[in-house]
Amino acid sequence: MATKKVSRIAVLTSGGDAPGMNAAIRAVVRTAIFNKIEVYGIVRGYSGMIEDDIYKMDSKSVANIIQRGGTILKSARSDEFKTPAGRKKAFNNLKKKEIDGLVVIGGDGSFTGALKLSEEHGIPVIGLPGTIDKDCYGTDSTIGFDTAVNTAVENIDKIRDTADAHDRLFIVEVMGRDAGYIALNAGIATGAETILLPETKTDIESVIIGLKRKERRKKLVNLIVVAEGDELGGASEVAKVVKERLPKIDTRVTILGHIQRGGSPSCCDRLIASRMGYHAVVALNEGKRNVMIGIQNGNIVHVPLEDAISKKNQGIDQELLKISHILSI
Amino acid sequence: MATKKVSRIAVLTSGGDAPGMNAAIRAVVRTAIFNKIEVYGIVRGYSGMIEDDIYKMDSKSVANIIQRGGTILKSARSDEFKTPAGRKKAFNNLKKKEIDGLVVIGGDGSFTGALKLSEEHGIPVIGLPGTIDKDCYGTDSTIGFDTAVNTAVENIDKIRDTADAHDRLFIVEVMGRDAGYIALNAGIATGAETILLPETKTDIESVIIGLKRKERRKKLVNLIVVAEGDELGGASEVAKVVKERLPKIDTRVTILGHIQRGGSPSCCDRLIASRMGYHAVVALNEGKRNVMIGIQNGNIVHVPLEDAISKKNQGIDQELLKISHILSI
Amino acid sequence: MATKKVSRIAVLTSGGDAPGMNAAIRAVVRTAIFNKIEVYGIVRGYSGMIEDDIYKMDSKSVANIIQRGGTILKSARSDEFKTPAGRKKAFNNLKKKEIDGLVVIGGDGSFTGALKLSEEHGIPVIGLPGTIDKDCYGTDSTIGFDTAVNTAVENIDKIRDTADAHDRLFIVEVMGRDAGYIALNAGIATGAETILLPETKTDIESVIIGLKRKERRKKLVNLIVVAEGDELGGASEVAKVVKERLPKIDTRVTILGHIQRGGSPSCCDRLIASRMGYHAVVALNEGKRNVMIGIQNGNIVHVPLEDAISKKNQGIDQELLKISHILSI
Amino acid sequence: MATKKVSRIAVLTSGGDAPGMNAAIRAVVRTAIFNKIEVYGIVRGYSGMIEDDIYKMDSKSVANIIQRGGTILKSARSDEFKTPAGRKKAFNNLKKKEIDGLVVIGGDGSFTGALKLSEEHGIPVIGLPGTIDKDCYGTDSTIGFDTAVNTAVENIDKIRDTADAHDRLFIVEVMGRDAGYIALNAGIATGAETILLPETKTDIESVIIGLKRKERRKKLVNLIVVAEGDELGGASEVAKVVKERLPKIDTRVTILGHIQRGGSPSCCDRLIASRMGYHAVVALNEGKRNVMIGIQNGNIVHVPLEDAISKKNQGIDQELLKISHILSI
């Protein structure tokens, strides 16, 4: 790193929080300091940028946070930042502090704002994919997904205990408004008989037929894992149909909800957050701008923010779906 | 144990399952075998008794189950057992196998059935309090409570992470239809600002005033823990009122639900289940009948099933409620 | 609390750290503030008192710590404090700040120092039993024990998995230099065939005979839980004897060690720490001095520090030992 | 799967057990049944093959095991199988049952035996990499690694709590006789200042210099993570050197040991085990023989068993090591 391209950078977290965001902040801060780059933390995302809630960070600011859920920089929505006036106000606060590079940890909504800021005011921006849904183009991994899916699995295991004790059907809803990765992985890992995803059209008729067959075979324990964004409308809607059609089956609904966002990050999430945070600073320092740091086949890649925002992930692995059916017989 | 009063006993689990039931079954089976008493397992509670779903157990039947949630004997509701005819049919199955003593692990509904069976057919019955709600007269501890409350605490900790990241108000519903023990203990242990219980009248007005005050002080992270049986009607109802009165606060609801029933039992639940299971067999062997094994001040007590069914627990510890208010300032 | 007996107090943690110490600090600080008493934190126990490493705490100082292991006030050993000169120096630092009451969270070594400080310099002292070993006279519960024993149980469960897969004998050492509570409770909760405690003389001959019998019966999975303070000298010493006498058995040693001190405190530990911390301030405020806050049969008691230091706990519950033998057949 | 190449297969686990082996067994069994192939379980690996401890499995044999640590088929070492006579005896037992395909879940030692069996007796063999060390050529993932490294991380987090409370140096030994993957990943994820691996020559002098520098800076909390196979000889040896050279530092050793082998498998391990188990049967059914199922860049690959045994993994990621140094400043 012969000549530095940045000398003072800022980092923020934005959008829904995800376990591992703190590990990413730590990596950004310490890699910057190692490279003699000053580093600032922006509190509550773009809101804090507009309100000048920005403070200088040092190595100790990020001590003892790698294992913590949430984000020490907090996150918030900002409608004002969606306007050119809001972004101008925000940029002026960065300019005042002579900040010449920005790292944004969040999802595609956060990247959209970052890209506009850069286009309008010239500041280079690096995005890190921080989202439990793994709904992000250009990267195999996102910060938070592995923890979220393990939280889902641990809790569905508990529900299995009670489902098994009572020969009940449980319909468990996991997070995922547009993406079924949590549902698919958690469903296979807990041996769910049925997995309902936003990416595939739910054939409720065949679900009902499957349940009827199991009812006859007296295999009464059943588990349906459904992503919140399934086009049928989540666990409660599925339960309504099942209860109407199969009133004799003892059916219960559990919505895992926000517990999937919190908790100490898994080893995997800490590692990718550390790697991505390191490479965000390296990229800024090498003059890269407006890219997202992604991981593809284990390697770091630089994905143009434009692509990360506009392109679609390749979708659900059909083979995994097939395996899930075969293994839950 | 000079002269045995029983020579062949049966054990069943009934009602909502609770972590530690398997540890209790193990203790009943092995203590019986140690005392040269034959022991049978009845599957799916009173339903299995009626349907003669009863099998002989040995030491290996209960190997490697002390750490498992759920109940290997399964549980079920039985409307037929609520009739004298049903109980007669059930008793005949016990009689056929020359079973002369019964251990019932469950809540007060289960004890009611056991007591009627004993009164009508003379078989001595011992009850073990297995219920996560701790809603049981005559005992300081019930099998499953400690695990359930720790599961609630671990998950509310996770919700805290995300609440803190977003300065949100979370309203978390825990189990407890008639009893607020889970809500009270989990609420204090997670630093909840407000705890709503069935045992105390909820003054929603003062909750709103407290939230307003915190809104002004910009202490925006807030946690309300509410028992499902609160007279206001659970987390969703509370949220409705809060959203009407304080629309600016970002309010979310999480219902922990059935995850509180499952999971590997805590050390405490395994211990009390082991002690109670042991003492159930000792009691039968000493000729005791129709009592529940309880623990009071650390000591084993024998509570008449009649009392366990009809009497009320002393209720919520007012001092704990007071401490919870002071510590969440 | 009409007239206050103290107006400015300090709190410290001392000795081995225990999960729940942070919950106790939080309770002391917030109860003090609620009662309009100023409160100071002393860093690194008596060392920090001597070096004047003392800072004013407010409600925010203890935000978001109830769920954390370790102690934000840190702990340390101090040889200097064992001398009258050291204690004088320490007291002068308290005097300078007009501190008129002290809460000490730790074990009996810490209480000895506190009592001497009080006797020599007149400052009233309240002790809170914070020790994972539960080796403390006058209280049924100590802060940290429940978490430590659950950590032991969770990890021994994991060892069971691999012991079972290989038909191996595992000898697991848990903490407890003078007290076998962790070993006894964790041993019963994990179904250990043998439990070795400092309080009972280990009859190694009968352990060997038991293993031989099981070797013949081909019940090859075996688990011995041994407290580090067993008079045989810990797991490695026991393994040496077993390997000499029964060379054909595949024997492995695991020493759980310091993992038992850390981790997020259990619900139980957070609750007793909160209650005890609250009552420490109440006691100071009512003019009590030189007592330990204990819990007996669920009720708060005030045990003279002299007794807490010099008297012995009643020892191991013989019935539990008997139950452990019967249940591991 | 038009024409089946096998009609009756067997599955075994061998070598050190790893979390996820049960998920792999389940996948083999159910995929076989789905394809109308009969499937047998061999108990205790090659020992059981020699002793004819083999039983027919059905879909229910593997119900409710996906979440369990250990292996329901048990594992064992067999010296007899290392001889041609032993393998002949073993093969005869397979032949007797008309078993025409074999799935071996284990490490390279297990694959060596499998390959010899196939070469000598013609039975096609498929290997699945089941080892927590990830020390396996031809695959990015092995069954058990992700769980083991998360267990290490969770426990080192606990040690951090107590290290931090006492400003101590902890030297923690993790598994890995020939490979440092657990040490490297767990070390980065817990923010270890120093990570010692078998793959890199340990410059103990620079470790001592680093500790001295930190001693001067009063950054006293320190964590060294060392793989058991480091050429210095594990945590106890490292501690010996540190204590000699830096006697003032309060240094403690923890050896995590066998807890890293057990426990409920992570979502990741359940998934790769399920995929690999599925593909093992598909491969046999398509006529493939003597290959290991691996995962490279997310895709299933078939690695000749010969390569899996004789070739070396590409070794430690140097960039990760560099990141670990920068992030622990």
Automatic annotation (TrEMBL), chains A, B, C, D:
Named cofactor requirement(s): Mg(2+)
Binding-site positions, ADP: 26-30, 160, 191-193, 217, 219-221
Chain positions recorded as substrate binding sites: 131-133, 168, 175-177, 228, 252, 258-261
Catalytic activity entry: beta-D-fructose 6-phosphate + ATP = beta-D-fructose 1,6-bisphosphate + ADP + H(+)
Listed GO MF terms: 6-phosphofructokinase activity; AMP binding; ATP binding; fructose-6-phosphate binding; identical protein binding; metal ion binding; monosaccharide binding
Residues annotated as domain Phosphofructokinase: 8-283
Pfam families according to UniProt: PFK (PF00365)
Keyword Nucleotide-binding in annotation: yes
Activity regulation description: Allosterically activated by ADP and other diphosphonucleosides, and allosterically inhibited by phosphoenolpyruvate.
Protein name as it appears in the record: ATP-dependent 6-phosphofructokinase
